[in-house]
């Protein structure tokens, strides 16, 4: 009688392979030989685990030789694993939201919220694969504050590299349906990934040596995380001495919009959006996307401005300005807070300069696209002056307008923040500056009919004069 074959006890690596097999199969891998075929694929993954992570699987294997079968879905993915992944996503989202709440609360307490710069970003992709790949083909980032609007922007076409086999057709369909950027052979595409990544780092670098977070709309965050890692890896492939650690962090732009709107007046519940989903709706409306000078030159020539990454980020900034600046009593700057065709210079009234004590904690600087810094210390900003933009719809466009009948602080039309002249009912400029009033005590104005969601009409009491 032949000796009985000993039953091999499960070890930590075997538990790891059993857990990884359905996930790998869901990603397109085939293992006709069972765990023997899983072994070479999982070995490098196992070696990358920390000692603590391996200990979890080793402890799981101590139960004995029998391995309890897990319930799987139709694709062979363990249901318990799917539940854990969903729970991780919920926890991660909650943590990110809390970070944004803490950031905005801190800036508000330091009276720096209006002057703080946030970086709003968007990536266009060549294709999305079943393996979770999202190679980029275009990127744009704007540096934005409530006080100064868009202070700086960068835009770049990115070479997505060689696509995974079998996805060329899908990439062509996506391109034709959206951004029109060819997935391969595009002459404007930049494959110097080191320069692209370093350009992003320069824009985000802070005085303490860290990097500011990038804000993406919620539906783009997963792609953005992949792309930022992708850029780091591509840079390392070009230069083996390049730092492979990823310094970038991605935050929710929807949540930021929600908090900026709320902190305009914490005592006024009417300013609070119903949810971050409502913020997404405002971004999706794209009320500014057809304005001049929104898209890059190539998309302008292709007559496809709506899907340009530069259009996307400018629309984010203009939408936030439209919905928030009015309630912070901030002046709107043409081409910074609103497109120039809306904020026409001839339709703005400028007040004499008002000497105002500058906030020592947050000196305001203007950043031009050529990376030169121009100090605005000699140009007083008015973060707390009365300002009012009265808008009305003109066809498919929206133009700035104001009523000459109204007077007083509510008749002031937002200018550049460098000073706004008031015009009386007779049309003559007032010689005396309008003194800033306490924002907390003024009566909230009713919602206007212009651009709709953030622009206010003058008070009824003013219009009835």
From TrEMBL:
The lineage of its organism: Eukaryota, Metazoa, Ecdysozoa, Arthropoda, Crustacea. It is found in: Cytoplasm; Nucleus. This is Maelstrom. InterPro entries: HMG_box_dom, HMG_box_dom_sf, Maelstrom, Protein_maelstrom. One of its GO terms (biological process) is cell differentiation. It comes from Daphnia galeata. Its main location: cytoplasm. Residues 3-62 form the HMG box domain. GO terms for molecular function: sequence-specific DNA binding. Keywords: Cytoplasm, Developmental protein, Differentiation, DNA-binding, Meiosis, Nucleus, RNA-mediated gene silencing. It holds the Pfam family HMG_box_2.
């Amino acid at each position: 009688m032949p000796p009985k074959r000993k039953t091999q006890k499960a070890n930590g690596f075997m538990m790891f392979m059993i857990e990884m097999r359905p996930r790998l199969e869901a990603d397109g891998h085939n293992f006709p030989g069972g765990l023997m075929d899983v072994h070479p694929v999982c070995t490098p993954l196992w070696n990358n685990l920390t000692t603590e992570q391996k200990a979890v699987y080793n402890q799981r294997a101590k139960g004995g030789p029998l391995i309890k079968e897990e319930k799987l879905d139709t694709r062979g993915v363990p249901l318990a694993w799917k539940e854990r992944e969903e729970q991780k996503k919920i926890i991660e989202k909650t943590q990110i939201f809390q970070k944004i709440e803490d950031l905005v609360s801190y800036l508000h307490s330091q009276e720096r919220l209006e002057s703080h710069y946030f970086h709003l970003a968007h990536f266009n992709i060549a294709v999305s694969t079943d393996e979770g790949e999202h190679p980029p083909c275009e990127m744009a980032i704007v540096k934005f504050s409530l006080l100064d609007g868009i202070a700086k922007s960068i835009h770049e076409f990115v070479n997505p590299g060689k696509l995974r086999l079998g996805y060329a057709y899908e990439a062509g369909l996506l391109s034709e349906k959206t951004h029109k950027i060819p997935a391969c052979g595009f002459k404007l595409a930049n494959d110097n990934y080191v320069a692209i990544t370093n350009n992003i780092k320069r824009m985000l670098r802070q005085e303490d040596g860290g990097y500011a977070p990038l804000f993406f709309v919620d539906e783009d965050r997963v792609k953005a995380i992949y792309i930022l890692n992708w850029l780091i890896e591509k840079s390392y492939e070009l230069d083996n001495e390049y730092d492979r650690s990823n310094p970038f962090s991605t935050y929710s732009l929807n949540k930021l919009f929600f908090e900026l709107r709320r902190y305009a007046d914490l005592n006024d519940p009417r300013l609070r959006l119903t949810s971050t989903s409502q913020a997404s709706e405002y971004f999706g409306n794209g009320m500014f996307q057809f304005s001049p000078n929104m898209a890059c030159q190539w998309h302008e020539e292709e007559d496809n401005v709506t899907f340009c990454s530069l259009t996307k980020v400018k629309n984010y900034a203009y939408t936030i300005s439209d919905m928030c600046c009015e309630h912070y009593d901030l002046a709107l700057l043409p081409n910074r807070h609103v497109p120039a065709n809306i904020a026409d210079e001839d339709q703005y009234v400028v007040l004499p300069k008002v000497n105002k004590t500058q906030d020592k904690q947050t000196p305001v600087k203007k950043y031009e696209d050529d990376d030169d810094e121009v100090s605005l210390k000699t140009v007083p900003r008015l973060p707390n002056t009365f300002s009012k933009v009265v808008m009305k719809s003109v066809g498919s466009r929206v133009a700035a307008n104001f009523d000459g009948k109204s007077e007083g602080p509510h008749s002031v039309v937002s200018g550049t923040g460098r000073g706004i002249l008031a015009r009386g009912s007779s049309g003559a400029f007032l010689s005396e500056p309008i003194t800033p009033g306490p924002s907390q005590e003024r009566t909230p104005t009713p919602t206007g009919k212009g651009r709709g969601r953030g622009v206010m009409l003058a008070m009824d009491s003013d219009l009835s004069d």
